Amino acid sequence: MTDVRARRTFLRYLAASPLFASGALAPARGISAAADKRSREAYELGEIISSVNEAINVFDFDAVAREKLPPAHYGHLATGTDDDATLRANREGFRQFQLRVRRLIDVRKIDTSVELCGTRFNSPIGLAPTGGNKFCHPLGEVAVARAAEETSSLQILSIGSTTSVEDVNRERGAPVWFQLYPGEDWSITTALLKRAEQAGCQVVVLTVDLQGGSNRETRKRFTKTDNRDCNLCHDRSDRYQNRRRKPMFDGLDLSKYGRLSPRGITWEFVRRLEDATSMKLLVKGIVTWEDAELCLEHGVAGLIVSNHGGRAEASGRGTIECLPEIVQAVQGRIPVIIDSGFRRGTDVFKALALGADAVAIGRPYLWGLASFGQEGVRAVLDMLRAELMMVMRQAGATSIDKISSSHILRSG
Q1: What does the DSSP assignment read for 344-378?
Q2: What are the angstrom distances between the C-alpha of 133 and each of 13, 142, 172?
């Protein structure tokens, strides 16, 4: 039996197992129940799309990704933290909000463009930082950058990228935003900032939601089922081996880097970071109004409401539920971007109506990347933008700035 056939047989076995049905092994329990059920049925029946043109929604790309990726890689992509309750909450939170739609408005022309940190993008839907894109597709971040260039979309590059920032900027045709996990040694952090600046990046995104670590049980379960020899790619004897394979760590003394998210950094580190770079600084991982106010106090240029796609903490709160208190605290003084759990154009519209300036997606574009490379990423972006335009027409909002709180109600 070939590896692909063996993997398919294994996944069908998982899909049919009582553990999977109960949710104990569900790899993507943050998606809607109906879509997840349909996705599992696709594996059992072999009804997996063979081209982007066959896709009906972004979940169809998840089905292909599950089929193509090794179990350990798919488990890494699908996992949340603990029992994935926060991952589920990211999807379930959207049900708490209803849309108020309007009639008899001229909606022949729809403008989805937005301006963020001095750059205009064709859509409020951007690409969140995700590490190691080559585990999904050989071209990795290059394919993502090309799709971002084709659609004029925001791309935030992970520090854990498997392609250098210089190469990504060249393929994107414009500077991407650079995500930073600081090292424990300040010289490492300044070296990373300098490299991003020299590559032309104008925005740095400090990610702050993993200081406490996270228990990713779904990833562990899937890794146990992967019968490949992982040592062929991952040298377990070298504690820094994984970073050595990531270009942004080239030339750095990894023994001085330490943890990706040092447990000792505080808000004073934000001030220090601002003084050390000419790039605009955004803070990613904000989920409370208190921390939103601290972002303002420390002069950051913007913030990203994020729980790392349900991988940062077991709070049980979806980011869409966190958004209103953060928007209330910020009062429009800095841009508010949100990620985690966005799968539909209606999801994006709800966030914009609640006051977000833009939305970033992670898993959906990785599903597209694993499925069909650049074409898959482009298809996911196009599909979500088309869905957003449809709901904008339904609501009578002909541009992003015309989406307002009048378009949304909280259920009950």
Answers
A1: SHHHHHHHHHTT-SEEEESHHHHHHHHHHTHHHHH
A2: 27, 9, 15
pLDDT digits (tens, 9 = 90+) for 260-312: 777 889 999 999 999 999 999 999 999 999 999 999 999 999 999 999 999 98
Please tell me the distance from the alpha carbon of residue 235 to that of residue 243, in angstroms, as a whole number.
Answer: 11
**How far apart (Å, rounded) are the C-alpha atoms in residues 215 and 239?**
19
CA distances from 330 to 46, 117, 242, 291, 348 (A): 48, 16, 38, 10, 20
Active-site entry in 73, 76, 137, 308: 308
Apex CA 189: angle with CA 160 and CA 284, to 5°? 60
β-partners of residue 359 are 125, 338
Residue 277 backbone phi and psi in degrees, to 5: -145, 150
Distance from the Cα of residue 381 to its chain's centroid: 13
What are the DSSP calls for 248-294, one per residue?
A: GGTTS-HHHH--SS-TT--HHHHHHHHHH-SSEEEEEEE-SHHHHHH
User: For the chain, which residues make up each domain, given as ranges?
Assistant: 3-86, 95-214+239-410
Cα 292–chain centre separation:
20
**For the segment 87-138, what is each residue's pLDDT rounded down to a tens digit?**
999 999 999 999 999 999 999 999 999 999 999 999 999 999 999 999 999 9
| Angle between helix 33-45 and helix 3-16 axes, rounded to 10 deg | 130
The C-alpha torsion from 40 through 137 and 218 to 61, rounded to 10°, is: -30
Which pair of tokens denotes residue 196?
């991003």
Look at the pTM and tell me if it is higher than 0.70: yes
Query: How much of the chain is in helix, strand and coil states, percent to nearest 5?
Result: 50, 10, 40
Place of tokens 């597709």: 137
In a 3-state reduction of DSSP, which class is residue 410? Answer: strand
What CATH number does domain 95-214+239-410 carry, 1.20.1250.20, 3.40.50.720, 1.10.760.10, 3.20.20.70? Answer: 3.20.20.70
| DSSP H or E run through 73 | helix 71-78
Instruction: Give the C-alpha separation, 273 to 281, whole Å.
Output: 8
For residues 364 and 59, give the distance between their C-alpha atoms in angstroms, rounded to a whole number.
Answer: 8
Whole-angstrom distance, CA of residue 144 vs CA of residue 148: 6
For the question of residue 308 being annotated catalytic, the response is yes
Closest CA to 101 of 356, 401, 392, 386: 392
